[in-house]
Amino acid sequence: MKNFTWGLVIPLLLFVSCVQDDDFSIPDTVDPDPAAGVEVQDFMWKAMNFWYFWQEDVENLSDSRFPDTSEGSAAYTEFLQSESEPGAFFDNQLLFSEDRFSFYSDDYVTLTQSLSGITKSNGLIFGLVRIQGSNEVFGYVQYIIENSDAAAKPIKRGDIFTAVNGTTLTDTNYSSLLFGESDTYTLTMGDIVDGEVVANETEITLTKEVGLQENPIFLNEIIEMGSSKIGYLVYTGFIDEFDEELNAIFGRFKSNGVTDLVLDLRYNSGGSVNTAILLSSMIYGTNTKDVFLKARYNDKYQKVLEDSGTDLKRYFANKTKKGTEINSLNLNKVYILTTTGSASASELVINGLEPYVDVIQIGETTRGKNEFSTTLVDDRDNNYIYSPERTSKISSKNRWAIQPLLGRNENADGFSDYTAGLTPDIELDEDLTNLGVLGDLNEPLLERALSEISGTSAKRAFDVQLPAKPITNSKMYDPLKDNMFISDPPVIW
């Protein structure tokens, strides 16, 4: 079984030895005695000591904690042996108390595949809601991934399920029942009757498939309302393999004279920072002198970067990674739909656009993930940064990877303080009694955005009968989770 805990992602700045700083050095690369059985813990400590955003706040990671981290250091080796299980060592000995998102994996191959949206999945994307006054939980379908097992079964957005393999879902068993080792399970479906969730007799069996890749461009349409042409894009993940397709859609929007944009990020938990920059450029513009973000790292690495003159800012783009000209709508206003499932790169788009565009956020407060991290592996000559071109250099004794938080992204105004989430301008919960069909003009959140564009919002009441308040969702159990990463880091030579 592959083990994962919380996190986000961002392969990042490569530090090399030609940069001189007496107070900053790469941890030594000598493995401890293999007989001690702590190669993984040694990798974790040295990588965290180098990169971790809160390195100076964790006593165990202090530069003075272990002056000698070589093979012969008894104190260091004893510390590494304090937890026999690497995951427990990472969680208990190395994490800062306020860190909600750093995580580890016991298999870097599975983890890095997930960055391309490739996972083992049955295609069912859902939220889980606790029944008030009870420990029971039910699920509701948010959407179905195309060409998946679920897409071939009689299950759709808005459907309710209450049990798995005949066992009622609770807040203590849903993880093992829905996200355990079994690839196949049977759902007992349900209905909402007089505001209560009631099981019915329908059962649906779903099977997870290896290598399912989700196209994050779930839906794109042009809606005509009077003199307005409104682009509507349901975007479910910032996956850079689909950047060209995304740009082509904005080309279609542009050539058809789209005047307004509704960007639906309700079920988008994050992904590539570079894709977030490209999408924002497609919305706002391609002036490569306009700052989109500025990254900030731990204090000792920040000093090295600043002393070296490294530009930590990222700018709006005029071309994709493949050199295609960006199709930009050059908008001064955009409507963005959000839920608590909107995280990391989704929030980055909102925050990065705010200094330039009137962002009308509709829906719920976002998750509040303003930090970034990187995929680190036991490749010590590359400062632990994962590179697909260097897999042969990764220690054969260690397949583990870690995803520690490395810093925070500020927007052009210097704002990054949204750990409590980004609050919508127009609050509107999704309604479990009327979740609607994505793209249908009567789907409540889309309808609310369209009414704002048309100026008819005061004439329509948007009453929510049973608000969807998920305690978690299925994406949080994928390796990618709500991660944020970049694939083209600046390099100090």
Chain-wise SSE layout:
Layout: H1 39-51, H2 74-80, H3 86-94, E1 103-105, H4 108-114, E2 118-121, E3 124-130, E4 137-144, E5 160-164, E6 167-168, H5 174-179, E7 184-193, E8 196-207, E9 209-213, E10 217-225, E11 228-235, H6 243-255, E12 260-264, E13 271-272, H7 273-283, E14 291-296, H8 299-307, E15 313-315, E16 333-338, H9 345-353, E17 358-363, E18 371-373, E19 401-403, E20 405-410, E21 426-427, H10 444-454, E22 472-473, E23 484-485
Parallel strand pairs: 11-12, 12-16, 13-23, 16-17, 17-21
Antiparallel strand pairs: 1-19, 2-9, 3-4, 3-22, 4-5, 5-6, 5-7, 7-8, 10-11, 14-15, 14-20, 18-20
Features:
493 residues, alpha+beta, Pdz3 Domain, 2-enoyl-CoA Hydratase, Chain A, domain 1, seven-stranded antiparallel beta sheet, 10 helices, 19% helix, globular, disordered N terminus, signal, hydrolase, PDZ_sf, Carboxyl-terminal protease, PDZ
What would you say this structure looks like, in words?
Helix content is 19%, strand content 24%. The protein is α+β, with helices and mostly antiparallel strands and 493 residues long. It folds into 3 domains: 34-115 and 374-405, no CATH class; 119-212, Pdz3 Domain (Roll), CATH 2.30.42; 217-371 and 408-461, 2-enoyl-CoA Hydratase, Chain A, domain 1 (Alpha-Beta Complex), CATH 3.90.226. A hairpin with a 2-residue loop joins strand 10 (217-225) and strand 11. The two termini are 40 Å apart. Residues 1-36 have low confidence and may be disordered. Residues 1-21 form the signal peptide.
